[in-house]
Amino acid sequence: MKTRYFPSFTISLRLSFFLMCCSICVSAEIADCSVLEVESLRCEYQDNPLGIDVTVPRLSWILKSETRGQKQTAYQVIVSTCLEDLQGDQWDSQKVVSRNSVQVDYRGRALSSATRYYWKVRVWDKDGHPSDWSQPSWFETALLDQADWDAEWINDGKSNPVADNDYYKLDPAPLFRKGFDLDKPVKQAMRLIEDC
Q1: How confident is the model at residue 32, as a pLDDT?
Q2: 3-state DSSP call for residue 38?
Q3: What is the pTM of this model?
Q4: Distance (Å) of CA 92 to CA 37, 75, 129, 154
Q5: How are beta strands 104-105 and 58-64 bridged, if at all?
Q6: CB proximity list for 159: less than 8 A, separation 6 or greater
Q7: Residue 4 has pLDDT above 90, yes or no
Q8: Beta-bridge partner residues of 38
């Protein structure tokens, strides 16, 4: 018995196979796009703020996804004093079931004055899948306790004006300068100045 080939059947079979492969590729791309990403981490409405003066800072982040209707169902925040070992030595919120991504109160150990804290976030999407960790962000505290302020008043040696009109007399602003030597290379430096 002789086998007969039907050209139209062969073409439609090849076309069906091609379309199936294309739909698998598109489905894989759509699955990749449905991932929920965390970006734009902020503390007290600022990017990497220096000198925050609150003991319970509020943290916020923005969610990004290519999928319509995607949402956050839970989050986890980790705060640490060391960027290299960002494991949550100050706070690990664990998984918190919440859609909140704005003004999340810090609930870790008491913050120390003049200290830099690094933090990152991950969230769970509407299907319960965790996102990757966000890029680390940081915030640095000011001097939080009155006892931390141990500075002395400085001036240029002139007496203060006696009468109100004396404040408006020509008196150029003084230049304050102090030299010092360092024994080691500087990794980070901060100067705190207060004007009353």
Answers
A1: 47
A2: strand
A3: 0.69
A4: 19, 11, 19, 43
A5: antiparallel
A6: none
A7: no
A8: 63
